[in-house]
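Subgroup meeting minutes
Present: P.N., E.W., G.H.
Scribe: E.W.

1. P.N. recapped why we're keeping a running log of single-chain structure predictions: easier to compare across weeks, and new members can see raw inputs and outputs side by side.
2. G.H. added today's entry (237 aa).
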Amino acid sequence: AFSRALPSEPSSLTISRTATGKYYVSFICEYSPIRTTGQGKVGIDLGIKDFATLSTGEKIANPKPFLKAQKRLKRAQQTLSRRTKGSVNRNKARQCVAQLHERVSNTRMDFQHKLSRQLVNDNQVIAVEKLMVANMVKNRKLAKHISDAAWSSFANTLSYKAIESQHATLVYVSTWFPSSHLCSVTHERLNRKLSLSERVWDCPYCGQKHDRDVNAAINIFQEAELNLALNFKHPSE
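Output recorded in log:
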C-alpha cells in the first residue's frame, strides 16, 4: 500500500539497492506542479559558519552533517580496517560505515530540500552568487567544510524547484562580483581585502557598520535586480 497516491499511472519503475541493503522503488509519472504565489525578493550569501545569510538579515545555521559524524565515522572505519577480509564481522563493520555515510547524505538532502522549498514558496525573485566550488576546494583548510556544505547541490535544487514553481525566478550573480567588499549603501568598493576572520567592517565612505554576510547578501540581491532590469524587454519590443 502507498503512503500517498501517485499523481498518475506510472509509465515505468526502477528498483535500486543502497550500500546499506535498503531497496527503493522510483516511479516515472506525469504530474502538474502547483504554481507558487510568494511575493518576496531575496538575495542569498552562502557560507560555512552560517549555511545561508539572507538579504533580509536572517541567518540559517549550517547543519554540518559530515563534520558532526566525523568522529563516529573515523572509529567505524578503523574497526572496518581491522576486520579480516571476507569475514562476517568485516561485513557488519562495512554496513556500519555505509549507514553512517547514508545518514550524513540523508541529513544534508533533507535540510537542502526543506530550505529550498521554503525559499521558492515565499519568493518571486531569488538571487545567489555563482560559485566556482571546484576551485574553492583546493584550499586545504576549507575543503572539508565546503564539501560538507554542498553549495552546488543546493543551487541545483533551488534551480529545478524555481522552474517547477512557474513563478519564482532564480538569478545568478557573477563569481567575480565583489559582494563582500562593496558597501550596500554607497556601493563604494573597500580599498582592501577582508580576511575571513573579519565578520564586521566599517565603511570608510559613509561610516556604516556592516555585518559581512548580510551586506554581501544585500549586494547580491541588488546586483540581481540590476541584471533583471537590464535584461527586461517590454512586450511591445
